[in-house]
Amino acid sequence: MNQPVKPERQDGGQGETLEAVLVRRAATAHLTLATAESLTAGLIAATIANVPGSSAVLTGGVISYASTVKAALLGVPQDLLDRVGSVDAAVARSMADGARSACAANIGVSATGVAGPEPHDGKPVGTVFIGIATPKKTTAREFNFSGDRHQIREQSVQVALELVVDFLKDQLSADQKAGTNPGDR
Hints:
The protein is of the alpha/beta class. Helix content is 42%, strand content 17%. It contains six helices and five strands. Strands 2-1-3-4-5 form a five-stranded mixed β-sheet, sandwiched between helices. The protein is globular, with a radius of gyration of 16 Å.
């Protein structure tokens, strides 16, 4: 992955990668992060872990490729999985909450979707949900990516990192405006 941040995302060193921005911002805010990954199978956590100093931020992750793991380790309600399948916004939210809880982190990020080559749970190839859980709010967004399996997984990682970086930027900005110490959370 290790792609340089787009110029509008740079706020540090020249050519800083998105994952480096994430680690720097999370460390500055004294926030930790955990992942719950289905279609990305650990790529989000691995990408973050490539950054020196990431151990101060990344508490852990759960690869929950199977729905049984989503239910048993992340606490995704089995009735939800039975009703909507594993590729759904509510599942992504529950996975993010579960990662946050299971790994004792401030932020949970999740990815569930269909990398292909066949549709899954009635969803077409390229359908991806990324969830973000914080102490105050849990959200999920739907994305429709194109390309082969590898490309869909890489796009999922990129967007997950972007969403966390955006959250951290907003959080640091809010802390500065409020005059609060982010480490007091």
